[in-house]
Amino acid sequence: MSPPILFNPAQHAHLFPSLVLVHKTCITSAPYTIATFLPPLQEDLMASWWQDRIDEVSAGTRQIIMQMAPNQTTGAEELAGKMGFARAMMEKLEEVAKSAGRGLLMLDTEVGSPAEVAYPRLGYIDVSFVPPAV
Question: Which pairs count as long-range contacts for 26-35, CB under 8 Å and 24+ apart, including other chains?
Fold first, then answer.
């Protein structure tokens, strides 16, 4: 597996439709990560949201970390759930944060998600729990 990379709008513009598709898939496929949008999804709104994030990268106010699929023809290899993948992504996140002068990372996740198990294994500590809305 190659190391995670930073999204570069000039080099990776062709990946824009894939960013929307992956985001949509994360929301509509198990374990159903609710990430910014709730079903029913409107692809045009998601595309606009991603364009705004890419504009922030271009302006230097955001970084997007990506892990390219080992098989770039089919993307068939499953990456989710593999600790090496999670570790590599988090190490890249820590590297980017440190280079930006950030000393504290605050992560959030859903109860029962794979991240809830992965983060402590990577050295992160649980500092709070937000109970479900009543």
Answer: 31/112, 31/113, 31/114, 33/110, 33/113, 34/110
- Kindly report, residue by residue over 24-53, the tens digit of the pLDDT: 988 888 777 767 888 899 999 999 999 999
- Dist. CA 61–CA 9, nearest whole Å: 13
State how far the Cα of 93 lies from the Cα of 65, in Å rounded to an integer: 7
Looking up tokens 């595309």 gives 47
Segment (H or E) for 95: helix 83-99
Domain ranges in the chain are 5-121
The three-class DSSP label of residue 125 is coil
- In the chain, pLDDT over 70 holds for what percent of residues? 88
Query: End-to-end CA distance of the chain, in Å?
Result: 43
For 71-101, write each residue's pLDDT tens digit.
666 554 555 445 588 889 999 999 999 999 9
